[in-house]
Design goal:
Elements (H helix, E strand, L loop, with lengths): L1 H23 L4 H14 L5 H13 L2 H38 L14 H55 L5 H33 L7 E4 H11 L1 H4 L5 E5 L5 E4 L1 H18 L5 E9 L2 E9 L5 H4 L23 H11 L3 E7 L2 E9 L3
Parallel strand pairs: 2-4
Antiparallel strand pairs: 1-3, 4-5, 5-7, 6-7
Helix pairs in contact: 1-4, 2-3, 4-5, 5-6, 7-9, 9-11
Length: 364
């Protein structure tokens, strides 16, 4: 803009001097003088001598004045044209900014001179649209999940009421049958508790702020303990978890929250691994960073789903009910925890092998 203003000033100065040296002192001096004298004679009814003296006084003796007047008029005209152009630019920019909030797939178009701004506005618009779409999809998944959970709560609750009613009505029920009904009722109660915890988990995820309490943690021991705790889940399907770490690794992190991350990843690996398969857990240090990998053999995860598995309320297998699947928060919460540690969590899947890799700074 400053360059354009300087350009306008230079053009005005050049034009002013051209008017002076061409019209008043140059090749057009005589025609201009004759035209002025003829105007005075024919229109103002002055004689030739008076008209000549008027020309001399007005123009010959006041060249600087007329030069300044011409310069100012020309400058105002050029400035008005330039200002109109800038105003048009500002209006187009304003319209482009207004389009950022519109729910439209139309791209923002600006003049070629504002190509850089057009690209930035379209990038911002694309990001805002993606965020709005992601938020809408997350909200829809959340609503669907709440509906599923509410529906699933009815099932164990109905069973609990039914069996308790039978126990209340049949006072003389055989002991074996009574014990059977009590056992079933207790199992349904545990299931009901699990579903209610799912509801609380959803609320906590939306409201909580992750606060870390870091300590020096022996990673080898933690991973071995996590693997041992999963034995009851692994044994029925003939699965096993094997920890492979060559060197002793210590990291500075929040042990409780990190254990939750490893539990969530391992739980996911158990669910989606083939029967009689081995889940490999490994860790290594590299450039002051610790990498922990969980590798399982099972169904390959499509690339488009890999990009979404760390989103809240997303479940890899939408056909899975809450009876066997969680609320879709485990990996999302794990991602939040690892990010709070200044690390990352990623997943790759190919040839029936899926690898989850956690990276956290060793001395974060």
């Amino acid at each position: 803009m400053i360059g354009q203003i300087i350009f306008i000033l230079v053009i005005a100065i050049i034009s002013g001097y051209l008017i002076s040296f061409v019209l008043l002192d140059g090749i057009l001096q005589a025609p201009f003088a004759d035209l002025f004298i003829a105007f005075c004679e024919n229109v103002l009814q002055l004689d030739w001598y008076v008209a000549r003296d008027a020309y001399s006084v007005l123009f010959q003796q006041n060249k600087s004045f007329w030069l300044a007047i011409g310069f100012i008029i020309l400058l105002l005209i050029i400035f008005y044209i330039a200002l109109s152009r800038f105003t048009r630019y500002f209006n187009q920019i304003s319209d482009g900014i207004m389009m950022l909030s519109e729910d439209s797939e139309k791209e923002i178009h600006l003049p070629a001179e504002l190509d850089f701004l057009e690209k930035q506005l379209n990038n911002v618009k694309a990001k805002l649209e993606k965020r709005a779409k992601d938020a809408q999809e997350a909200e829809q998944r959340k609503n669907d999940l709440v509906v599923y959970l509410a529906h699933d709560i009815k099932t164990p609750l109905t069973s609990i009421i039914g069996y308790l009613s039978l126990l209340d009505e049949a006072k003389d029920m055989p002991v074996e049958q009574r014990e059977k009904y009590v056992t079933i009722t207790l199992e349904k109660s545990y299931r009901l508790e699990q579903l209610i915890n799912e509801f609380f988990e959803i609320t906590r995820f939306n409201l909580q702020t992750i606060i870390l309490e870091k300590n020096l943690i022996p990673l080898n021991y933690m991973l071995l303990q996590v693997a041992d705790e999963f034995y009851p889940l692994l044994a029925p399907k003939g699965q096993k978890a094997v920890v492979q770490i060559d060197d002793e690794i210590n990291i500075y992190a929040d042990g409780d929250k990190l254990a939750r991350v490893f539990n969530n990843i391992l739980k996911n690996a158990v669910v989606y691994s083939n029967p009689n398969s081995t889940i490999e857990i490994s860790a290594r240090n590299e450039n002051n960073q610790t990498f922990i990998s969980f590798t399982n053999v099972g169904k390959t995860i499509p690339a488009e789903k890999l990009e979404m598995i760390f989103q809240k309320f997303y479940r890899l297998d939408s056909a899975r009910s809450t009876q066997t699947g969680g609320a879709g928060l485990g990996l999302a919460i794990s991602n939040e925890i690892i990010q709070a540690h200044g690390g990352t969590i990623t997943a790759t899947s190919s040839d029936h092998k899926t690898v989850f890799t956690v990276m956290i700074p060793t001395n974060s």
